[in-house]
Amino acid sequence: MRKLEALLEWGGIKKDIVCLVVSGFALLVSIFDFIPLPFDAAWIAIIFCGIPIILEAIIGLITAFDIKADVLVSIALIASVIIGEDFAAGEVAFIMQLGALLEDLTVAKARAGIEKLVHLTPQTARIMNGKHERIVPAQQVKVGDILRVLPGETVPVDGVILSGQTSINQAVMTGESLPVDKAAGDDVSSGTVNQFGSFDMKATKVGEDSSIQRMIRLVQSADAGKAKIVGIADRWATWIVVIALTAAAVTWLITGEIIRSVTILVVFCPCALVLATPTAIMAAIGNATKHGFLIKEGDALERLSTVSMIAFDKTGTLTYGIPEVVKVKSYMNEYPEEKLYALTAAAEQRSEHPLGKAIVRCYRKDKQDILLQNEQFQMLPGRGVLAFVCGEEIIAGNQELLNESDVALNEVLMKETDTYRSQGCTIIFVAIQRKLAGFLALSDALRPESAGMIQSIDSLGVQPVLLTGDNDQAAQAISQKLQIREVHANCLPEDKIIWIDTYQKKKDSICMIGDGINDAPALKKADVGIAMGGVGSDIAVDAADIALVDDEVKEIPHLLALSHRMMTTIKCNLTFSMALNFLAIILAITGILNPVVGALVHNAGSVLVIINSAILLKWRKRNVN
C-alpha cells in the first residue's frame, strides 16, 4: 500500500513538472511571439497552472472557509483575465505553481518503520507440556505458560528463565552492543534473540503487554505531537487578502481606473513570499546532502534550528558499536602478555560469541600472526569457552565459569578488573591448566571525532545529553571522556521517550541521535530525529527525520549551523519580498506600474529570492570540526 502511495505521489510530481515546463515555454512564446498561434500562448499557463489554484482556493473556502495565499492569487488571476492581461495572469500562476512544487519536494516522506517493527514481532512460540512441546502462534501464549527457546530463536513474550544458561542479544530493546549472559531467575524480553544455549522460561507479559508490542505503540504514537510548520504565506494569508482587496477597492473608488486595482492585486500576490521558505530549504537540503545527510522531512531543518539540546545514544553513535581489546594482563611469568593473547585468541577462534570474535579479530589486526590451532573446543553458553591449545587447557570466560572450574581469583586481580569495569570495559578471565593466567579487557571503541563534535556543539550553544541503554559505569566512562555533563543510563525505549518528554515539558526543543531499533520511538518523539544511516537499523532510519548516511558524526555541528543559516536566509527573503510588495503597491496606486510591468517586477523579486537561497548550496561554517 505504501509503495502504491509513493508511486502515485511521484506520478503527481512528474505531472506537475511537465505542466510547469509546458507553461514556462508557453509564456516565452507569449512574450516573444516566435510561434504564431491563433490565441495568446499565456492561456496554456493559465489553464495548466492557474485553474488548479482557483479550484483549490474555491474548495478550501467552501469546505472550511480556509483563506490561504491561493485565494488572493485566484482573485488576481481572474481580474487579470477579465481586463485582458493574459500574460500577467499566466506568469503569476506559473510562479505560484513553481513554489508549490518546491514545497511538495521538501515535504516528501519515506517511512516504513512501523511495518518493519511488526516483522520483528515473534510469530510462533514453543509451549512445553511436560516433556512434550507444541508450536503455536505467539498470540496464543498465556501468562504462566512454560516456553522453550532454542539457540537463534527470538524470545516470543516477556518472561523469566526457569532453567538453562545462555546469552541474549538485547539490541532491539536496549541498544547494547554486546549480548547479555542470562541464567535461571533472569528476565527476558520479547523480540530479543537467544544467541547460544536453549532455556525454559515462564511467560509473564503476553500480547499487547509484551515489550516489542509496547515499542510498536511508542513508535506509532510518538510522532502525534510533532506539529508541522505552516507556510508563512498561508499563515499571513487572511491579512494579505484583506489588505490587498481594501487597497484595490479604495484605489478604484478614488481613481476610477480598474487597471490600477488589478495591478495592485497582481503585485500583492505573495509569489516571492511563497518561494522564500521552500527555496531556502531546498538549497539547505542540497548542502546537507553533500555533507552526508539525507533530509527526509522538509521542515526538519527548520525544527533543528530551534533545538537547545541534543540527546545522543552511545553505542554505534558516539562509539563504533564494535568491541576492541584494550588491555591484556598476565599474572604468570611463563605466559607473558603476548603469549597469553595468542593462546586466548586460539581458544576463541571457533567461538560464535561477539566477544570471542572480537578477540580473534583484534589479535589478527594487532599481531598479524597466524592463529594456533585448538582442539576439543567447547562453547559454554552464557559463560565462555574451553579448548586445548598446544596441549594446554585454556578456559576463557566470565567469573562464574572460573568459579565452576575451581580456579581461584585473588584480590589484586579483582581490584584491577574493577578499575577497567568502571571505565565501561568487559572482562574475559583466562585460566591455563586450571590456574589463573590473566585477563583481557574489551571496550566499545570511541569514535575519534566524537570529542571534537561534542565541543563544537557546545560552542553553538546546544547542550549534549547522553541517553543510553548501557550500564552506569559504561555511560559515565564515555561521558567523562567526551565532557558530557548530563547522563541517563540503563534506558529502555520508553525511558528515552520519558526523558525527551520531560525536556519538552520544560520548553526545551530537543534533537535525538541514535542508530538502533530501540532508538526508533525516541527518534520520533524528539523535535528532530537523526539516525546513523551506515551502522543504524533500517527501522531507526525510517523513524528519523534525517539520516547521516556515512556516519561521519563530525558533520553534525555543520548541520546545526546550516539550519541557523537557513533560517536567517528565510527571514531575509521574507523581509525583502514584503518590502518589494509594498513598494510595488505604492507604484501601482500612483499608476506608474501596469499589470504586465507589475508582474515582471514581481518576477524579478522572485528571482532574487531564489538567488539568495541558492547561496546556501555552497555555504560552510568556518572552524567546524
Strand arrangement across the biggest beta sheet? 10-22-21-20-11-18-19
**Rg for CA atoms:** 32 Å
* Alpha plus pi helix count: 24
Helicity range:
40-55%
Overall pLDDT metric: 81
| Structure classification | alpha+beta
What general form does the structure show? elongated
Q: For the report, how would you describe the main beta sheet?
A: 7 strands, mixed
Q: Could you tell me the number of beta strands?
A: 22
Distance between the termini: 43 Å
Strand content: 15-25%
Q: Stretches where pLDDT falls below 50 for ≥5 residues?
A: 1-10, 106-115, 222-230
Provide tags for this entry.
disordered N terminus; 625 residues; 6-stranded antiparallel beta sheet; alpha+beta; elongated; 7-stranded mixed beta sheet; 24 helices
